[in-house]
Amino acid sequence: MSQFAIFSGPALCDQPEIYSFSEFAGRLKSTTQLRAEDRARLEFRNRTCPHCDRTTVDPIELRDGQFGRNGAMIPGTGTLVGFGCHACGHEWPA
After folding, report:
1. What are the residue boundaries of the structural domains of the chain, listed by start?
2. 79, 82, 83: which is closest to 35 by C-alpha?
3. pLDDT per residue rounded down to tens, the chain (94 residues)
4. 81 near 93, Cβ under 8 Å?
């Protein structure tokens, strides 16, 4: 099992923290999964329009997400700024 150092904190630290690859990968997955869970909860809470109470709601994202091989943005990777209803045109912040 290979090991590599991950430095955190001030630049003048005496002892670097050393993680195994599996520990480091586990930390990355857990933080990414938490962000995905928070986004899913936010989208679930805003699944109906507060103005007309219909379920024709789409998230409004900034174009700062990840782009796929075909040049199109991957859905769900952009910054979520709000929601918009197709039926009545009402928009509200996230």
Report:
1. 14-93
2. 79
3. 556 555 555 555 567 777 788 777 777 665 556 588 899 999 999 999 999 999 999 999 988 888 899 999 888 888 899 999 999 999 999 8
4. yes
SS3 48: coil
Q: Is the pTM of this model over 0.85?
A: no
> In Å, how far are 5, 13, 19, 67, 88 from 94, measured between CA atoms?
38, 39, 36, 23, 18
Interatomic CA distance for residues 92 and 59, integer angstroms: 10
Cα(74)–Cα(77) distance, integer angstroms: 6
Q: Tell me the residue length of the chain.
A: 94
> If DSSP codes are grouped into helix, strand and coil, which group holds residue 68?
coil
